[in-house]
Amino acid sequence: MKLEYLWKGLPGHPIHPPLTDVTIGAYTFALIAAFIQVVGITTHAGAYGWWIALVVAAISSGATVTTGFLDWLTIEWGTPLWRTATWHAVSMATATVFFVIAIFVGHKHYSHGLVGTGPFILTAIGWGFLTIGGWLGGTVTFVHGMRVLSLVQEPAARAAAPVAYPEKEEAEGA
After folding, report:
1. HSE (side-chain half, CA atoms, 13 Å) at 129
2. Is this prediction's pTM over 0.85?
């Protein structure tokens, strides 16, 4: 077992992508909760859900950003993969800035069970950048093939096993 597996993940099982599910899911829920509050479906619950989801997502971003940054450091600079990953990071950082501003600006609204117009717009803009960043993150994986092993004939149980089998390490070039 290699020490780098703690932050990088096993060959074929990187840590960064699953962490993005928590962050993206919480930010997406925040937008939905804000929307249902703004259009009047809820009276206070939407605002509470919106703000708490933003805070949860911002906290989960710490691990997501750290693992993504460590993956980014392994990419050869100047390559098409590096450019795509860099734009992915820039988009996600921009989204995070909008969300964090929404947290601070929206706190007074949240404490009154409301989602203000400004915080809602900040959340929507953040989600737009999040969507672009997610698209680019998908490009890093599914177009450029970063951390993809392509062991098509690997038996299912062995492929899914949380073990660094020799063929996985070889396929990743580890």
Report:
1. 18
2. yes
Tokens found for residue 15: 């840590």
Under 8 Å between Cβ of 15 and 7: yes
Element (H, E) at 121: helix 117-142
How confident is the prediction along the chain (174 residues), in pLDDT tens digits per residue? 788 888 889 998 999 999 999 999 999 999 999 999 999 999 899 999 999 999 999 999 999 999 999 999 999 999 999 999 999 999 999 999 999 999 999 999 999 999 999 999 999 999 999 999 999 999 999 999 999 998 999 999 999 998 899 999 999 875
SS3 97: helix
Q: How far apart (Å, rounded) are the C-alpha atoms in residues 164 and 60?
A: 26
Beta bridge partners of residue 14, listed in sequence order: 9
- Relative orientation angle of helices 45-72 and 80-110, to the nearest 10 degrees: 150
